[in-house]
Description:
This protein has helices at about 5, 15-25, 35-50; strands at about 10, 25-30, 50-60, 65, 70-75, 75-85. With about 100 residues, it is of the alpha+beta class. A hairpin with a 2-residue loop joins β4 and β5 (about 70-75).
Amino acid sequence: MMDARSVIIRPIVTEKTTAARELANQYVFRVQAAATKHQITAAIEEIFDVSVIKVRTIKMDGKRKRLGRNIGRRSSWKKAMVTLAEGQTIDFFEGV
């Protein structure tokens, strides 16, 4: 089983994720591609000491990129949208 700190790679902070955080108490993270919803739930609860209600995961395909005549591809990654219990927040995101 993966360590909690190795499951969560980094938070994703955009205008869309900020709106989701304010309206639906959802936080978005980039996670390991092999991580399951149960591992993500356990990692978030252990690291931030909050209660997770629901986890939704999305596999993001890497974009095709081109440099001159050479075509390459960025690596694919996994995104997790975590919904917290009513009244709970992650202090890491406050003030962003």
